[in-house]
């Protein structure tokens, strides 16, 4: 018997959501192995932190209480610049809402990271040297 991938579970004690929980470097961990059950009635939101550091983008995800998450995210608002050393913290309250943003990747961002080279075929690399 298969369980649904996510649930907004109503237990005997109250409402429970599920969130992704992880710490990842250069990896927006949003796969089933990172799903956790949040504490019933206490952790009613999913939190996502995105830190842009010299060695790459760090992702930190967890369950959170709405009050803690909202205070933290508003406190970090001024650091959410998208530039190096920026920190963006977001809160959301639907199951697994701290997964990957459904947005198409920006080609210029991929090229800037240097990882775009991985997608070049050997003949194309020859032209670069
Ligand atoms: C989360 O809770 C559900 C329902 O209580 C349970 O079936 C599932 O195994 C739990 N998942 C984890 C990762 O603890």
TrEMBL record:
Single Gene Ontology BP annotation: acetylcholine receptor signaling pathway
Annotated TM spans: none
Domain of life: Eukaryota
Coiled-coil residue windows: none
Keyword Membrane: no
Statement: the UniProt record of this protein carries the keyword Signal: yes
Matches recorded under InterPro entries: Snake_toxin-like_sf
Keyword list, A-Z: Disulfide bond, Signal
GO MF assignments: acetylcholine receptor inhibitor activity
A single cellular component GO annotation: synapse
Matches recorded under PANTHER family: CD59 GLYCOPROTEIN (PTHR10036), LY6_PLAUR DOMAIN-CONTAINING PROTEIN 1 (PTHR10036:SF7)
Name this protein carries in UniProt: LY6/PLAUR domain containing 1
Organism: Xiphophorus couchianus (Monterrey platyfish)
